[in-house]
Each structure stands twice: as C-alpha cells, then as structure tokens.
Amino acid sequence: MNQSTVQDSPPAIRTAGLTRQFGGLHAVDDVHLTVPSGAIFGIVGPNGAGKTTFLNLVNGIIRRTRGDIELLGTRTSAFATHQVARLGVARTFQTIKLIPGLNVVESVVAGRYRVRRDTVLSAVLSLPGERRARRENESRARELLQLVGLDVPPDRPATSLSYGEQRRLEIARALATEPTLLLLDEPTAGMNARESTALGELMLALRDRGLTLVMVEHNMSLVRKYCTLSAVLNSGTLLTTGPPDSCLDDPRVQEAYFGRAEHA
Ligand SMILES: Nc1ncnc2c1ncn2[C@@H]1O[C@H](COP(=O)(O)OP(=O)(O)OP(=O)(O)O)[C@@H](O)[C@H]1O
What are the residue boundaries of the ABC transporter domain, all occurrences included (predicted)? Predict the structure, then answer.
C-alpha cells in the first residue's frame, strides 16, 4: 500500500462511547478513539487501566456493554473474533499462546490456516493443489521468520525457544494471516533492550509495508521512539491522545502514573 492509499483509507480503528463493564467496574469507559491507517499507535496507562480490555473489545474476544467499534471502515461492534480476523485484523497476546507440539515453521503456517477454512478443508481432504499450497505456505512462513529476525532452525519445537524468540514467532504467526491491522499486547514483555529495539525496527518495517500497528506497551522509551501516535488510558477512560512526547509529558498522565506531577 503506498502513502496516498494509506491516507485515503478509513481509520484502522474508530470507537465511539466504547464501554465494557465487569459487574460494577467500568474496565473501559466511554472511549472515543481514532487510530488512523498507517499509524504505529501506542496504548499506555497504569496497571488495570483497561488496555487489554480495549484490545479484547476491538478484536471481538469480549463484547461491549455500550458503544460502537468500526475497523477498517466496517462496523464490527457485534462481530466475533473470526469475523474480525477475516477483515484483516491479527493479534498477539500478553501471555504467549503457541500450540504445543508444533515446530517453528508449523507454528507460522498454523496462523495462515486460522483464517483460511477452505485451505484447512482441502488439506484434510488432500484435494489437488493442496501439496503446492502447503509448499507455498511453508515458503511464506520462512520469509516471515526472516522478516521478524527469527534465525533458528525451522524444525525446532516452538516451545523450546527463548521468551523473546517466542514473542517474535507469535508476530510471524499473526503476520501469516496477511493482516492490515496488527494488535500487539505488550510485545516487548520479557525482551532485553537489544530485542526491544529490534522489535521497534520491525514495527517501522511493517508500517512501511502498509500495516497499521497498535500496541499496548509499558516500555515508554520504545513508545516515544517508534510510535507515531499514542493514547493514555486511566481507570478505563481515555486521558489523552496525540504524539507520544506530548501525551506522556502531559501532567495528567504523569499524575496517573506517579500520583503527583512533580514526581515525573
Ligand atoms: N474478565 C474480567 N472480569 C472481571 N474484571 C476484569 C476482567 N478483565 C479485566 N478486568 C478488570 O478490568 C480492569 C482493566 O483490566 P485490563 O487487563 O484491561 O487492564 P490493563 O490496562 O491491560 O492492565 P495491565 O497493564 O496490568 O495488563 C482491571 O481492574 C481488571 O481487574
């Protein structure tokens, strides 16, 4: 996707009055937020601010109590996860979710099958063309492993990788669905500084390929360096949104994190 196409695209995410209650708790409370296409968008906020709940609402894992969600120009408020995935939205999780028993390359190919039921069916029935499709899937998986910088033997069991490597494998698996919008929940958790920087560079490379990236992240220097826009949640509400430096230096944000502005 070139730059003018990205600019002409509808917002990757638009929420209006988005609210999710758990009993009496407003985990996400009346959030009006727009993530433009082509952004690297950081969602930050103290623990329990509602960041993961927001991502869960966006990709249909949980249902809203009130409000609306529009993804890539389609109203998805009542969509289930698989319907959201088919629009071109992929997701990684705070807790790594790799399928035990699969090797590195199989884990990425599994990502492809997740949204392509027709391919699964032809694989099971061994229909003509299935072997060629499998070869293509594996070769695409190897390209994605290279893209995310995961230089390990493709036949290694996925669960034997280091934590940082597993996080990159999850991103490769998410990319295997050919998403337009990639949601990452704390992608640098457990990564060292070198791995975190590599992840930042990967996000830039993906953005240059036309993806929109939204990440929940606690690493503020990463957000400042690599995100083009950000939003701060606090107690479920949207405190502020805009370029990371102005958001994170906002006294209200400092207060949400530290209690008093002068502690920043
Ligand atoms: N399924 C649930 N049932 C009840 N309460 C929930 C549920 N999921 C989240 N919450 C509550 O909603 C609030 C927001 O949680 P959420 O996980 O979205 O925060 P977060 O900003 O992602 O936090 P962290 O940075 O610690 O991961 C918290 O008070 C949490 O305990």
Answer: 13-260
